[in-house]
Amino acid sequence: MAKLYYVSVMSLDGYIGDGHYDWSLPVEGSTAFITEIIRPFGTYLYGRKNFETMSFWETPDLSNMGQEHHDFTRVWQSAEKIVYSKTLKSVATQRTRLESQFDVEKIREMKSKSAKDLCIGGPTLAGQALRNDLVDEIHLFVVPTTIGSSIPVISVLPKDAVLRLELMEERRFSGSWVYLRYRIQT
Predict the structure, then answer these.
(1) Closest CA to 167 of 134, 144, 142
(2) Interhelix angle for 30-38 vs 67-78, to 10°?
(3) CATH of range 10-110+125-150; options 3.40.1280.10, 3.40.430.10, 3.30.1490.20, 3.40.50.620
(4) How far is CA 31 from the centre of its chain?
(5) What is the DSSP string of 134-183?
(6) FRET partner for 27 with CA separation of 20 to 30 A, picked from 10, 47, 89, 177?
(7) What angle do CA 7, 157, 133 make, to 5 degrees?
(8) Residue boundaries of the structural domains of the chain
(9) pTM for this structure?
(10) Which residues contact residue 52 at a Cβ distance below 8 angstroms, ignoring those fewer than 6 apart?
(11) Phi/psi at 105 (nearest 5 deg)?
């Protein structure tokens, strides 16, 4: 059975975006490390906003980027992508399909039949998956900055939701970035 991972970069105050992303530009070694995390994923499940951000990697200008970005691009492009959106009418990236509804039972079936692990991106979609016990691990890259208010790294969880997590791995990067890998305890 495949696992479902939630991987996200977040500010120290718990947000993923504020309309610009200069606060979360990669630091030395982070892109290569993230690439190794995502390399085994066969499918990415995206919410609309997260997909729109990540679709940059479909046709990036790599002329001024290092080898680690070339590798990340190849890994990202090779995976299947499913975008969940009620507003998008089409997607222009390769290996991508559009779904209007996030169907919990379809995701369970996908996990049971997939030969490769899955990754979920976007805080609202991840919140739905967490609420329905679909996520196996959470991988967070914590950037030492606050952005005030924006989209929380996990959205739409009930206020009384309790997730029990076991820290599996941690790592420090330059720029005081910290990587935290948690397994969700059942």
Answers:
(1) 142
(2) 20
(3) 3.40.430.10
(4) 14
(5) ---EEEEEEES----SS-BSS-S--TT----EEEEEEEE-GGG-EEEEEE
(6) 47
(7) 65
(8) 10-110+125-150
(9) 0.93
(10) none
(11) -65, -35
